[in-house]
User: What shape does this take?
Amino acid sequence: MIEKVLIANRGEIALRIYRACREMGIKTVAVHSTADADAMHVRMADEAVCIGPAPAKESYLNKAAIIMAALVSGADAIHPGYGFLSENADFAQMVEDHGLVWIGPKPEMMRLMGDKITAKRAAKEAGLPVVPGSDGSVDTVEEALAVAKKTGYPVIVKATAGGGGKGMKIARSDEEMAEAYRLARAEAKASFASDEVFIEKYLENPRHIEVQVLADNYNNVVYLGERDCSLQRNNQKLLEETPSPALNAEQRKKIGTLVAEAMKKIGYNNVGTVEFLYENGEFYFIEMNTRLQVEHPITEMVTGIDLVREQIRVAGGAHLNYVQDDVHFEGHAMECRINAEDPFTFVPCPGKIEQWHAPGGLWTRVDSGMYTGYTVPPYYDSMIAKLIIFGKSRNGCLMRLHRAIDEFVIEGVKNTLPLHNEVISTTDFIEGRYSIHWLEHFIQNRNKQNG
Assistant: This one.
């Protein structure tokens, strides 16, 4: 049984993990950089250990410092949250090699599904539909041209490692391919220290649908519905909702069952998210995230299942205490990611929060580490809060979201609340008619109108 968890993260996700541990009677250890000495997760945890200076590579990405903090504090498990080292299989292996419990998938699963090429191959072998493209990495321009000819333009050149939109370039002709291939490899090398790329058919107007899975160490797997994450800018998600307005109950059950069966064949454990592009009634596997997702709260809202609690239980050796028929989906949920950014230029705006008032009321949840007087540091991701809303219907959820945004007060730093208010007021969003390109087109049109 796990008795003390070191939380290898910061911000709202560190608090989220702390809360789950506290409710389970598990002690917590917060790690922090010098820039986060006054952070809420540091204040709340049972113990806190400073692991380095402000830059993430010297603190939150410092594997040795985190392992040492766990050993010195007497923690018997490490929860990585999301981001930072959460999908680093080598770190997961280090944790286990030091006799600690890794609260996440087995390192071998992380290696298999963390590499886009091997993940695609494994998904295909397990029965999931995949995007047409190269069977593996593409090592020359000539090979890239051959794949594009077979697949048909447009195609997208993608980095094998990493994510977040880096190392991704679109080519619509042979003339564009050479440049797209060169740029994608250069960007991949700079971002992920690997210039390996592969090629897929580029879908013109898809939605981004992801399926949440939960599995124990005994090959019991359930799916917990899907999330629609199509509202993206530069491949970064802005707002997510579940269930997707694009799917019906039959499609939802079909893809969920398919994913759960695939995870059984692969031997996956703990939580994970299988991501698809969805267009014209067809699903295409693109990747798997072998960790907790930023948007996991909306799944919790419609299922009533605490995903972090389940992560900890499974990592501690427990069986899932329910089967698929025990999982029920009720109502609708949406999550707004609120960033400390200019809502028009998207330039990060760190600084001191002069006033902070989070909305409340029925089925209104705010995951955040912010408080009045806190200074948002410039060193990390700009997300400062997640506003999560539940309603018995999509319309009821949307009305509650409008009310909550109006009630939210953030002064001292520019933030993206105004953008959220604009987006959810559009006819396209109200009617659920949007794709992964919708938000960028909306922003472009808005900026033109505003000069």
In short: The domain at 132-201 is CATH 3.30.1490.20 (Dna Ligase; domain 1).
